[in-house]
Amino acid sequence: MPDLLQVFALRGRVSKHVLWIYSFWISGRPLKPLKANGVEGEDFQDENANCKELSISFVLSLKACANRKDVREGSRLHDDIDALGLLGKNVHLWNTLVSMYAKCGDLNKARQVFDEMLVRNAVSWNALIVGYLQQGDSEAALDCFEQMYYEGVPPDEVTYACILKVCGLMRDSIRGEKFHDEVKSQGLLDKHVMLGNTLIDMYAKCGFLAKAHAVLNELHVRDVVSWSTMIAGYVDHGKGEQALSCFRQMQEDGCTPNAITYTSLLKACGITHDVHMGLKLHDEVVNQGLLEKSRVLCNALIDMYAKLGALSKAHETLFEVPFRDAVSWSFLIAGYMQQGRFKEALSCFHQMRSEELFPDASTYACILKACGIIQDARTGKSIHDEILRRKLLEQNLMLGSAVVDMYIKCDLLAEAQKYLSELPVRDVVSWSVLISGYVQEGMGKEALKCFDKMQSEGIIPNAITYASVLKACGITRLVEKGKEIHKKIVEEKLLEVDIVLGNSLIDMYVKCDDLAEAKHVLIDLPVRDTVSWSTLITGYVEKGQCIEAFNCFQKMLSDDLSPDAVTYASVLKACGIMQDPDRGKSLHVEISAQGLVEKHILLGNSLVDMYVKCGIVNRAQEVLDGLHIRDVVSWSTMIAGYVEHGKGEEALCCFEQMQSEGVSPNSITYACILKACGITRNILKGKQIHAEIAKQGLLKQNVVLGNCLVDMYVKCGVLTKAQETFDTLPVQDVISWNALIAGYAQEGQGDRAFRCLEQMHNKGLSLNVFTWNSLIGGYAQEGHAVKALDIFQQMEHEGTSPDAVTFVCLINACSHSGLVDEGQMFFESMVKEYGVTPNKEHFTCMVDLFARAEDLYKALRVIEQMPSTEYSSAWSALLGACRKWGNVKIGRLAFNHAIQLNGCDAASYVSMANIYATSDMQEESQKFRILRVESAIFEYPVLSSE
């Protein structure tokens, strides 16, 4: 330390405290105490000679401040330098000052010092550019470079390295290529390997990996940084195979990897799921002793095993490596989360905390997600409290959103709302999470209220917010609100960049029953995908507009879009509704050819349902038998199919097979099997199912099951048990009352049925058409036609419109009571006055009406006027009447039609044999009794009607 500095200190031109620091930093020992007396004049004779040494001392001291990021001490040094007048044209000292302030993060002061410089060289500009780079201000760094260029200061290799780094950060490959050309033309690449490495990094960051590798290959000298940069570039873009290939080239080049190289390679193994290579790299880093030197490498090992799904190995490695910190645990927690092992993730978190390690915000968010998924509100609340104590929410908005999401997933929407209102800062993400939570719970109105409040706070919604709000509009069927959101989305031009939002718009209009507008949105979308078409197709199918659904499906194919499982499922449903087995079979072939049935259980279930709806129950069973995976939906669909076709025994067999395969029935399965018990009148099985349902507590939460139980007991004729079950139901709705009324009516207890109707009316329940039909049908079955007609008049008086079943019951009542004129009047009025189109049941009842009155020719004319003469029930009714009245001629005609429609119908042969017997034609009668036995083997005979 020069004596001159001590002299300056005595004169008060520098502080003694700062002088002591200079001495300590430079020489490693403090200065001797200064003399209290003055300093003789000769002590200053070499002052100018010593200024250079003093400047060097200041430079070293300023660099020490920069390394320690001690801007306060650096500022004091600056004051002392000014006091000593050392700056002048000393560019080196100026540059060191700029660099010190820049490295300490005080860029305003760095710029101020820079602007005061009388002379600036490349190093001066570099100091400022590096400072802006360190602060992440790429634009300012670029502005500095351009100003430097404008002032005619030639950039050096450091400048180029910095500005190429800026280009990489800004993903500005065009400017980067321009600087590449400049560097190349100046021959700097051959002299400075650092520039080549920076070029590789720039191209890699810009996504031009081929160019980056080309630069690597062109370098005359390639060091470990060159290779590591290229490998890291491949890894950052998810190209693990290329990264590992590059590593092999590096080894062939004789270059030894370092900890940074291995860190990237371990990530590459995680990307490629290359366990073998990962284990090999693990051995290498252990043998080279690199783990003891690099905490980052230790964590990369744990992260690799976690990504490979080798969580036991990751856990084992965590406790073997020399460094274990919060990051190590975070990687392991993320691995468990990825595998869906949420409880183990929470266990890791508790272990981590027991080591007094605190996670970062992203790990807290991860653990909160786990709490939400497993609905562990208690742990979630505890973590929330910890986050509050650490005051992390003030600096991390993402964490606030994660807390809101946790409460929502734990079904604590009120807590989520309360917490959101307490957040110091609420952003679009936190609001969107809450809105989405309400939507997921089907609470559309609350979601829309949140959206309005969010807007009132001046928060601008994003595409995710709009998507949730559109779902809320769909839930609430507020199409006008949906149109308002639609308008905003169009104004903000979001549809041009976000196809999901376009699909959400289609879905909203579909849910609001505005299919025309949904189609209009789809046509106007700049880009349409499979989801766009599937959403509209599903909408048409749900509204029963199957022809439109088929048309959309064809247009989708003409757009060169491949249907997905959802699309096929919707179109198969349309085939079932339309009872179009040919189209359904064609789709089945197409789906099977693509191997989609094996991948999507939804499609297997949809195929079973389609065949069931088309009446091809045997084919549905074949599809079910061929499925690799059969879930409760598969079995329930098949059971429901058997029930719909009146095949109760087959439904019960299917149920037993389902249970034998270990598939647990759900409420839908139980409802179907109770109907099967009713069809087969299997009261023992019905009681067994009743006991199972009661044991599982399903009756408390499922009204449909209660109604099915009442109906089952009614169908089995056990009205006492039906009434008892009805009385214990937590909710007695119109359907349960109807089942009971139908039971009493069918058992001939019309008075009790009517009393039920009055009780129902007194309870304020609206009587529907089924209720009235049950009463009319019950009285009709008892032969009380007059009472049935009275009930019909009361039904009209109450304002209930009759349906097709009502008229079947009325005509049937008239038929059994011989009221031919009244029955004919009901048949005519159903079309003229009530707009009900007659179906085969109505025509069959009319045939029966005339046939019972021995007016067989009128009955025959009814059949001839039917839309189709292929209604076997009508011919069977006529044949039965011919047997009663002994009409051979019409009997022969009816028989021929009946057996043409069903050649194996033994009843037709019996009826014809009896007609012959009644007409004293014993030989013919005997012949038909023989044919009755052989009807299932031989061709039926066609009789002459003469």
From TrEMBL:
Keywords: Repeat. Gene3D superfamilies: Tetratricopeptide repeat domain. The keyword Magnesium does not apply. This is Pentatricopeptide repeat-containing protein. PROSITE patterns: PPR. One of its GO terms (biological process) is system development. GO terms for molecular function: RNA binding. PPR repeats lie at residues 90-120, 121-155, 223-257, 325-359, 427-461, 529-563, 631-665, 733-767, 768-802, 803-838. PANTHER family: OS03G0644200 PROTEIN (PTHR24015:SF739), OS07G0578800 PROTEIN-RELATED (PTHR24015). The keyword Cytoplasm does not apply.
